[in-house]
Amino acid sequence: MSVQTTAKTSRPDPPRRTGTSAAARWRALRRRPLVTTLFPFAVVIAVWAVVAELGVFPSAFFVGPATVADSLLTSVQRGILPAYIVDSLTRLAVGTGVGLLVGVALGFLIGLNRHARRFSWPLLLFFQAIGDIAWLPIVIIWFGFSLTSVTVVIVYTVVFPLIISIVAGLDAIPTNLLRAASSLGASRWRMFWEVYVPGALPGLSSGVRTGLGYGWRALIAAEIIIGTSGVGFMMFDARRQGDVSHVFVGMAVLGVLWYMTDALVLAPLEKETVERWGLVEGIGR
Amino acid sequence: MSFLTVDRLNQVYTDVYTNEHTVAIDDVSFTIPAGEFVSLIGPSGCGKTTVLNIVAGFVEATGGAVQLEGVPVAGPGPDRGVVFQDFALFPWKTVLANVAFGLKMNGVGKAERQATAQEMIDLVGLSGFERKFPHELSGGMRQRAAVARVLATEPSIMLMDEPFASVDAQTRRVLQQEVLRIWDLRRTTVLFVTHDVDEAVFMSDRVIVLSTRPSQVQADIRIPIERPRSWTDMHTNEDFVSIRRELMGMLGVEGAEVAP
Ligand SMILES: Nc1ncnc2c1ncn2[C@@H]1O[C@H](COP(=O)(O)OP(=O)(O)O)[C@@H](O)[C@H]1O
Ligand SMILES: [Mg+2]
Fold first, then answer.
1. What ipTM describes this predicted complex?
2. DSSP state of B135
3. Residue ranges of chain A with pLDDT lower than 50?
4. Ligand 2 centre and the CA of B120: distance in Å?
5. For labelling, which of A57, A146, B100, B129 has a CA lying 20 to 30 Å from the CA of A127?
6. Distance between CA atoms of A221 and A91, rounded to whole angstroms?
7. Do B78 and A183 touch (CB under 8 A)?
8. Cα A24 to Cα A13: distance, rounded to the nearest angstrom
9. Inter-residue contact A95 to A150 (CB < 8 Å)
10. pLDDT digits (tens, 9 = 90+) for B1-31
11. Three-state DSSP class for B31?
12. Residue B63 C-alpha to ligand 2 middle, in angstroms?
């Protein structure tokens, strides 16, 4: 369930008379979208708090939610965290933006052109095997500790899953749809826009999901290794100072940002297209 | 005048892995005059779909020729509208946009193509479902939409490959009557592929029977049953009963009796 529909769909409980069982009230509560979304997290946080309270691990290694919330608040107040988040998101946006452009263009070229496919497929498999961070050493030699290096690594990780998903999406278009379009008089150009592009959308959207996920991870890795700012840098810097609580803050921020990307961007786009057309079932809903 | 000419068609498929050759169609010739409803029947795997795909231009024959109004067929085109067994509606387009698709591809303006599409939707009985996506419709409704999509471009001939095989028996009879009703209004030439003898006899002016693979034309039978036809009185129709029995015999379905 996406977060932004919460306001519309959650209604106040109908007035209840005495005698309503606690169980019924609980069931009604569980049906509210916001509650449904937050409940699993509440459980995790509660377990976390209990484990921290019991002192299972030394507090130098493991801090409780209260301590983390405290660190979160101070770093927000000092403006460090917001600035780092903006830095990270900007890098991710630049990297995935370029990655999307390159990946979508190459995906359709390789998916639709026989020669391009024969030429590039072995190369694709080869370069895909050289994981994102495996490029960091050489990229740092070429571009130094710069935004360019981070961008190159993100673009690299976004492009491959995108190309492969788009090619798979194009291959999955039923032959009869292509036949129907051409027998109704569609030119090659029209076929591209009217059939291949929408037909490849399920593949494209799963490729964007995978690509963005990989890009996000590559960003944190790059920030840890070559960063001077950003969420990844914050976590690594905190580790250097033995500040476990800020490492936890960083992890929580990563999770929340990804959740919001999904809920605010990816899920609504999928809902309006591939889900509406009955091409895929709601993902995780 | 013969409108569609299928002349000495031959089709050999080559398996890309084993390099084995399969002669699907040995030698098939027939002609269809304008305005006739002709069924092609034969045992499963005898090459009915292959013949239709060659006429549609989806498959290039290894031998023989197809001419439509004297012009050799090369590749698919809107002069030959195809109705597929699996409907082949565009899932990302509404019923209206699906039906208007052919007109859009042929440069008809938006207002005009939507008006025509609406007309076709009304004709096939889908009024009120214009804004639905195909996955929101039943099988029968999807095939109605597919028929409307083909009718909208006014093809010279309609090619239908087992169009009712994916819908339930009840809906199938309704659709058979519906298609005949619509066909009666326009008398578009139809080449209709089926393996269902009852359907072939009920729908057609003529039934062409293909032999088992490698196929040839085994028989070409005229159906003199008066139109309009309806299923309610078909099983007591003498022509229907006798032609049906004759065809069943040809296809090796001996001892088959007409269902009550
Ligand atoms: N693309 C293809 N490649 C290889 N063999 C094929 C192909 N299409 C059909 N065949 C073979 O040709 C024969 C006729 O097939 P088809 O035209 O689909 O028959 P029908 O529609 O009468 O059931 C079958 O034996 C089938 O296996
Ligand atoms: Mg067939």
1. 0.93
2. G
3. 1-17
4. 27
5. A146
6. 13
7. yes
8. 11
9. yes
10. 569 999 999 999 999 899 999 999 999 999 9
11. strand
12. 20
- Residue in B6, B13, B28, B194 to alter for ligand 1 test, most ligand atoms within 8 A of Cβ: B13
CA distance B157 to B33: 11
- Of residues A251, A225, A239, A253, the one with CA closest to residue A89: A253
Look up residue B168 and give its amino acid.
Answer: D
Q: What pLDDT does residue B60 have?
A: 95
Residue of B nearest to A193 (CA): B105
CB contact under 8 A, A182 and B91: no
What does pTM read for this prediction? 0.86
Residue pLDDT, tens place only, A138-172: 888 998 888 888 889 899 999 999 999 999 999 99
Q: Which residues of B touch A185 (CB under 8 A)?
A: 77-78, 102, 105-106, 153
- The domains of chain A, with CATH numbers, are 65-275 (1.10.3720.10)
* Cα–Cα distance, A52 to A55 (Å, whole number): 5
| Å between A195 CA and nearest CA of chain B | 8
Q: Which residue has the tokens 């619509």?
A: B182
Q: Is A188 on the interface with B (CB under 8 A)?
A: no
pLDDT at B190: 97
